[in-house]
Amino acid sequence: MNILPKLLLTIVLLLSVAPALLAQKAAYRHYYRGAMLYAEGQFRQAEGHFRQAAEIIPDNFYFTSAYALALSRSGQYESGRLLLQKAGGFIALKDPERVSKLASWHFFQGMSHLYGGRAGYAAAPIRKAIELMQAKPDGRQLSILYNALGYATLLHQGQGSHVKAGIAPHFHVQRRSMERAAQYFEEALRHDATNAVALQNYRTLADTLGLPPGQFSAQADSLNQRRLLDPIFSSMPANIDRTLQLGQFEEVLFLVDISGSMVMEKVICLNQDRFDVMKEMALYLTDKMPETTRLGLATIGGDCAKTPLKWMPTGSLSKKEMKEELRFLYPDGTTPLLTMLVKAPELLSAQDSVSKSIFLISDGENVCKMGDLDICEWAAGLAGKNITIHVLTFLESGLHNTGAFAEYTCLAENTGGKVVYIDNYRCTTQLFDFNLLETCNLAIPPLQRSQCWGVAVKDLWAIFLEK
User: Fold this and answer.
1) CATH number of the domain encompassing residue 219
2) Domain containing 269: what range?
3) DSSP annotation string for 373-386
4) How far apart (Å, rounded) are the C-alpha atoms in residues 376 and 132?
5) Is 401 helix (H, G, I), strand (E, B) or coil?
6) Distance between CA 267 and CA 198 in Å, rounded?
7) Does residue 297 sit in the same domain as residue 416?
8) Which residues contact 307 (CB under 8 A, 6 or more apart)?
9) Does residue 383 have a pLDDT over 90?
10) pLDDT at res. 432
11) Is there a single domain that holds both residue 71 and residue 54?
């Protein structure tokens, strides 16, 4: 008698849950589009996409943080601040990235205060972020944090704006604040001498105050000059080895795209086709692997129903054999990415205690359909099997590649992996990780000498408010 109502209730629950599961890819598409628009300064448009991503997956720390910061950046300070508080609750106690996320969370609070015109509240959370990041220091990110601390120090004026007849509203800045800010900008350069914004900020204050060039300012000049003189593939493939750290896994399966487009398109700065560069990268990374790593090789090519050209389980190839297989690969067909990717875990061991990675190298978006399978939800299931997906793509990170990067991002994020793309013009590999930190590298506004406090007060400058 009670079976039918229970069955109906089960069906209703499944129908209500299914759309949420199938919408994960849509959430990542919105997140990616929001990231592109945000980077271009189109904050209100970005806000709409971040909001939709956060509505689809409400407990995602990155989606909610991005939405909150976009709100603050587009003039909705209080709404952004409250949403950031909520985002902090999405950082799980056992999250392996907990400390990194907490550092980001404190930093975003500081940035929200800055965007809301409340610089006096910004320094404390930024300092907390710096303290947390010392546990796992990242020079580039620490540089951005110190640059933001210098910016907050310069703009922190307790008396607020000054209004005087015949002069536009402005802040007053005294020499001691400028000197303290300059120290933070130089500290930013100590962590990353290539931080052009921190260098500009330091030089603006140094020139204004008549300070001598700092040690790290000169080092930045040297590094930038070397970069101009030596544009030869300097950070690829070397940087990708440090970025992905494939050697930490006990098993690594190379899943490589051998579709025709890999030959038709070139890596412009090298004047080599993507296929040859792909093989060079794979050979380099294979050479860097420990001898104990169990290696496997699978190819993406042919069509959606065709048997892959290579389908070799991990442990079936020595390093020498792996290199031989890579050297003699040839192009074949289209990009049945999804079909091959979903089958790929069968080439890994079934032991959950063994750390495993699928390293996907591709230049395109999937051309095959597999019913209603949501690739993001599928990837989330791999995490429990100790499988990480890393992606190297030849596609440019732009709005025209939204679909592909949405898939790449959720594959990596749901399994603890990374997405790397090749900059065709600068011959470098870039980590694609819409890290809001990278968008928070603020340049200080122009300063002008001020006599608002009388001619006797010589060390006073003004920062005029934006209209």
Assistant:
1) 1.25.40.10
2) 238-426
3) --HHHHHHHHHTTT
4) 30
5) helix
6) 31
7) yes
8) none
9) no
10) 75
11) yes
Rounded CA gap, 232 and 45, in Å? 37
Establish if 67 belongs to a structural domain. yes
Residues 262-321 have pLDDT tens digits of 888 888 888 888 999 899 889 988 988 899 999 999 998 878 778 888 999 999 999 999
Q: Is 358 found in the same domain as 286?
A: yes
Percentage of residues in the chain with pLDDT exceeding 90? 37
Confidence of residue 161 (pLDDT cuts 50, 70, 90): low
Give me the CATH number covering residue 418: 3.40.50.410
Q: Could you write out the DSSP letters of every residue in 124-171?
A: HHHHHHHHHHTTS--HHHHHHHHHHHHHHHHH--TT--EEETTEEEEE
CB atoms within 10 A of CB 448: 11
In a domain, 446, yes or no: no
Three-class secondary structure assignment of 443-456 = CCCCCEECCCCCCC
pLDDT in tens, 423-437: 777 677 777 766 677
Give residue 239's pLDDT.
Answer: 61
Per-residue tokens: 382: 């791999």
Angular region, 267: left φ>0, alpha ψ -120 to 50, beta rest:
beta
Please answer whether residues 393 and 420 qualify as being in contact, where contact means their C-beta atoms are separated by less than 8 angstroms: yes
pLDDT of residue 226: 44
Are 183 and 298 contained in the same domain?
Answer: no
Spatial CB neighbours of 214, under 8 Å, sequence gap ≥ 6: 186, 189, 202, 206
